[in-house]
């Protein structure tokens, strides 16, 4: 492997390390403040822009978890009063996950906490130019794939699945 390849792997390792540090700290503080996990908050955040709710498979796809995994997450969040299950209008066989008022409030509070943590761990170390450069660089590598490519990769099992 040449030096350029090692350099690229080193950058990838640094990104993974930073991501792990930030997620660990956010998860720890969300659990302490709200009694819910980072993944549960990711689900709540995914529901926030959808006042009429989302289907279970839509949540599973958005969170990169299995349908069984999203069902277990929803069960926990229903038990905490943060989410409700509603039948879809016009097709009562389909169930939608919908945020409760409590879920909306908690999601907003959690967003404030997450922003403070990001600022503490990242923003305090980077100036505005650094943030803009990082955003530009990461934007080059995180462009979405065409939907048909994502669907083909998903059916082959190429995407990691969390539960």
UniProtKB/TrEMBL annotation:
Cross-referenced Pfam families: MarR_2
Annotated GO biological process: response to stress
Chain ranges of the HTH marR-type domain: 1-143
Keyword Cytoplasm part of the UniProt annotation: no
Region feature (Disordered): 138-163
Transmembrane annotation, as ranges: none
Signal sequence segment: none
GO molecular function per UniProt: DNA binding; DNA-binding transcription factor activity
Keywords: DNA-binding
Highest taxon of source: Bacteria
Entry-linked InterPro entries: HTH_MarR-typ (IPR000835), MarR/SlyA-like (IPR039422), WH-like_DNA-bd_sf (IPR036388), WH_DNA-bd_sf (IPR036390)
Protein name listed in UniProt: DNA-binding MarR family transcriptional regulator
Organism name: Thermocatellispora tengchongensis
């Amino acid at each position: 492997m040449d030096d350029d390849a090692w350099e690229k792997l080193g950058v990838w390792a640094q990104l993974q390390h930073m991501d792990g540090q930030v997620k660990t700290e956010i998860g720890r503080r969300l659990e302490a403040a709200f009694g819910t996990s980072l993944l549960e908050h990711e689900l709540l955040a995914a529901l926030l822009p959808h006042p009429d709710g989302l289907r279970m498979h839509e949540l599973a796809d958005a969170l990169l978890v299995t349908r069984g995994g999203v069902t277990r997450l929803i069960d926990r969040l229903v038990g905490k009063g943060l989410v409700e299950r509603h039948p879809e209008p016009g097709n009562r066989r389909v169930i939608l996950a919908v945020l409760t008022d409590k879920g909306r409030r908690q999601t907003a509070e959690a967003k404030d906490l997450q922003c403070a943590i990001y600022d503490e761990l990242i923003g305090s170390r980077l100036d505005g130019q650094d943030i803009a450069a990082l955003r530009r660089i990461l934007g080059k590598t995180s462009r979405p794939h065409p939907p048909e490519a994502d669907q083909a990769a998903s059916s082959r099992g190429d995407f990691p699945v969390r539960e």
